[in-house]
Amino acid sequence: MLNPTRPMTLLIVSKVESDGNILRYGLQDALGKHLILADVCRDLPSGADAFKKGHHDLIIVHGWKSPESEAFVLKIRRTDSNRHTGIIILAETSEGFDRLVVDNYNAGADEVAPSNLSIAILRSKIIMLFNYKITTDLLRSVNHKLQTMTVTDELTGCANMRGFTKKFAKIMEDCKSEKIGVAVLMIDLDHFKKVNDTHNHLVGSHVIRSMGQLLLNGNVLGGEDVPARYGGDEFVVLLRGDSMENQLKKAQKICSEVSKKVFVYESIEIKITASIGFAWASPGFSGPPSDLVKAADAMLYKSKDSGRNQVSAMKLTYPIDFSNISTQHMIEQPNVVSDLKKASSK
Predict the structure, then answer these.
(1) Which residues, in sequence order, are CB contacts of 13 under 8 Å at separation 6+?
(2) Span 46-59, pLDDT tens digits
(3) Distance (Å) of CA 309 to CA 224, 260, 296, 329
(4) For the chain, which domains are there?
(5) Parallel, antiparallel or unpaired: strands 8-14 and 86-91
(6) Does residue 258 contact residue 233 with C-beta atoms inside 8 Å?
């Protein structure tokens, strides 16, 4: 049997405290350097509280009958979430032991054994279970990283279009059920081609990466907002909330922040601006989600046609002709464009 690659923490929940302490001392001698912490609790509620605080690697439940032990195992499984905690049930082999075995395995226990098990055999079971836990946690970590990679843009750290589409579908369902309103921002860096032509693609990639970090880690977007890289130097952002005005302020703030930022790569300093299209769907919107993206894209082109470095915004209502958006859909933004141009000229 392979020894564990790291020392373990152990929680013993014993119906009789003295029995729990005897078990702890025996396992401390048997496991030696493989055990760095062994806590003992004398009742199940305090055992659950101790686990919430310490998140021990393994738990031994000693001397409890079913359904108490079964309920405890279920509670631990709800608490350990995406990590695996090894659980061993030790109980007397009296009448009802078979039922206890079935109940606890069904609840999620890893091992159910007689309480008179020798320390040597218990040691083997603990090490085997701990090695299994280490492997399981590693696999879960790797799977989580792989899942994250499939929905994350490698260059910027923002969502990629697969990740964006998954979240967009869920958010639009919430919008349809009148829980929230949704805004989509389409963001394009102005004259970005000049950056690559004047310098090189390494500088261009740095600007795109920094733009992604500005969206992710800046002081504009909230935790529920979803920035994504649309492609090249274009980004799309999902905003959710009750107030169209508050979401529009975020778009204006992003535009202002980009115009004030100096992108530095080695000794090269880059100043650039962004054009943004904003489209809002009020709570209860039931049209095709793709129309919201189409509307934001139309507003992006309006920003570019109007001189760039600005936000053009609309509220998506039907009927609408995307090739000729009427003024009834447009959102008036007094002084926004001039204020942004003043900021970028400083």
Answers:
(1) 20, 40, 41, 42, 43, 44, 47, 59, 60, 61, 62, 64, 72
(2) 999 999 999 999 99
(3) 26, 11, 15, 21
(4) 8-146 (3.40.50.2300), 161-345 (3.30.70.270)
(5) unpaired
(6) no
Q: With 50 as the cut, is the pLDDT of residue 299 above it? A: yes
**Is the Cβ–Cβ distance between 23 and 115 less than 8 Å?**
no
Distance CA 191, CA 212 (A): 17
For the ranges 2-6, 200-204, 276-280, 330-334, the lowest mean pLDDT is seen at 330-334
**Nearest-angstrom CA–CA distance, 41 and 17:** 7
Report which DSSP code applies to 185.
Answer: E
Q: Please give the full DSSP string across 195-264, using - where no structure is assigned.
A: HHHHS-HHHHHHHHHHHHHHHHHSSSS-TT-EEEEEETTEEEEEEEES-HHHHHHHHHHHHHHHHH-EEE
pLDDT tens-digit series, residues 263-287: 999 999 999 999 999 999 999 999 9
Q: Which of 160-169, 237-246, 325-334 has the lowest mean pLDDT?
A: 325-334
